[in-house]
Amino acid sequence: MYLPHIAARVFGTPLMIARAKVEVILGVLGPRFAGGALDVVDSEHDMPPLTSITVERIAVVSVIGTLVARSGYLAAASGLQAYGDICDAIAAAMDDASVRGVILDVDSPGGEVGGLFDLVDRIKAIRAASDKPLWAVANESALSAAYAVASAADRLYVTRTGEVGSIGVVAVHVDESGADAKAGLSWSFVFAGDQKVDGNAHEPLSQRARATIQADVDRLYSEFCALVAVNRGLTIEAVRGTNAATYRGELAVRAGLADRVGTLDAAIADMASELDLAAMPARHIITPTNHKRSPSMATNEAERNEHNASAPERAPASEAAPPAPQSEPTPPPIQAPAPRPTPEPAADPDSTERLREEYAEIAGLAAQAARLGVTIDAADAMRKGICADDLRRTVLEALAARSEAATIIAAAPSASVTGDSPIVRRARERAAAAST
After folding, report:
1. Model's pTM, two decimal places?
2. CA angle at residue 88 from 87 to 91, to 5 degrees?
3. Which is nearest to 158 in space by CA: 90, 43, 260?
4. Could you say which of 22, 145, 284, 416 is the most buried, measured as most Cβ atoms within 10 Å of its Cβ?
5. CB count, 10 Å around CB of 281?
6. 208 CB contacts (<8 Å, ≥6 apart)?
7. Rounded to whole angstroms, how far apart are CA atoms 321 and 288?
């Protein structure tokens, strides 16, 4: 029941799938072509949900198994996952008001070309229309078509033993003419149009059919490389230079195909921390006015001197006006009271409380930043009067710069390329621009 559909999706059509998975499929289908039986999975088996939501309100969307354009005719237990299901799950998570961010949990060797490019475009459009982050984790593999999906994420993690890459296209032709002859079968095709039966499985592959399939594979490969280059901020030459190789763990980061080495749990914790950091209320340190100062501030002598200077000066006794004629007794002159020292302004309780809240917020922000690998000197920030909002922006910029730095590390050029790769040149140009 399932064999014709599976065979039609494997043979005679371009695939974006890891070589090892192709060999597994051929190993399963091969005995059937020789007359053996094909085990059929139980279609009634219940599969786990595509999306789960963590206690941190992060939606985790599973991208697992062989990817196909449609899988409605096959049970999910067969190990196939449809592009449409992935798209719907991401869109639903982004629309869910209770969800703060989305992470793709990818463990797939890739799959069909059909529908893949449209899926990636839809994922990018969904992400652009939302203010929620979209990350991905190669856990344990994001290869070929699955890597194309993962590359659409804002940030890509790979586990220590995980693999990414296999950026290539393959098409398989099976020649059944020998098996037909052994079985006493002879196939005849009646057709119109010279290329109508090119590449059929019941005769050897002709040179014209091979050239046609190769041209299709080459075109799709160019589109695949361009897609990855745009999504990962690499050059097309750097992507082609990988030659469809796979990269594991730290090597994937060095090649520019991933941003960080980490597990799914680490990615969830990092996203939650960054969302918590961004959600902290923005408050600025309040500068007291009307000469109201908190007890922690030193007395402003300049203000006191300015106040005393503005008071009218009394004339010296030697310059006083002469007394009136003593025609009759006059009362003694009234002496003006001596000026009193300017009293120390009382502390403003509201201002003091605001300062305490600001200091507590800066301390909390420093703790959050430390968990993300960014160091903040909270005491120095308090002394300099730097507001928490400016510190928060500095942390987020540091995190963004760290991700950007990873993207300029490209794969090593192939042996045929001489001189520095475009990505190395790009890194040097950035370093030179930063130093000027």
Report:
1. 0.64
2. 85
3. 260
4. 145
5. 9
6. 195, 198
7. 45
Specify the higher pLDDT residue, 347 or 266: 266
Which fold is adopted by the domain 3-184+198-277? 2-enoyl-CoA Hydratase; Chain A, domain 1 (3.90.226)
Query: Hunting for tokens 């305490």 — which residue is that?
Result: 356
Structure tokens at 93: 């998570």
Mean residue pLDDT across the chain: 77
Above 50 in pLDDT, residue 318? no
pLDDT at residue number 422: 57
Cα dihedral 402→407→409→411 (10° resolution): 150
Tell which residue, 16, 7, 234, has the closest CA to residue 108: 16
DSSP string, 85-109: HHHHHHHHHHH-TT--EEEEEEEE-
* Candidates 62, 71, 141, 144; catalytic one: 144
Side-chain-facing half-sphere of 117: CA atoms under 13 Å: 13
For the cut 80, the answer to whether the pLDDT of residue 221 exceeds it is yes
Question: How much is the average pLDDT of 276-296?
Answer: 55
- CATH 3.90.226.10 domain extents, the chain: 3-184+198-277
365 vs 43: which has the higher pLDDT: 365
Count of other CB atoms within 10 angstroms of residue 418: 6
**Strands of 190-293, DSSP E:** 246-248, 260-261
On the question of a cis peptide bond just before residue 140, with omega within 30 degrees of 0, the verdict is yes
**Per-residue 3-state assignment (H helix, E strand, C coil) for 177-210:** HHHHHHCCCCCCCCCCCCCCCCCCCCCCCCHHHH
pLDDT digits (tens, 9 = 90+) for 211-220: 999 999 999 9
Give whole-number Cα distances, 319 to 315, 316, 323, in Å.
Answer: 6, 6, 12
Share of the chain above pLDDT 90, in %: 43
Beta bridge partners of 261: 158
Mention every residue, 6+ apart, whose C-beta is less than 8 A from residue 30.
Answer: none
pLDDT digits (tens, 9 = 90+) for 123-181: 999 999 999 999 999 999 999 999 999 999 999 999 999 999 999 999 888 888 889 88
Q: List Cα–Cα distances, 157 to 33, 59, 134, 142, 270, in angstroms.
A: 40, 16, 12, 10, 11
- CA separation for the pair 127, 150 (Å, rounded): 13
pLDDT at residue 415, rounded to an integer: 43
Tens digits of per-residue pLDDT, 50-79? 999 999 999 999 999 999 998 654 445 567
pLDDT score at 222: 97
Question: 52 an active-site residue?
Answer: no
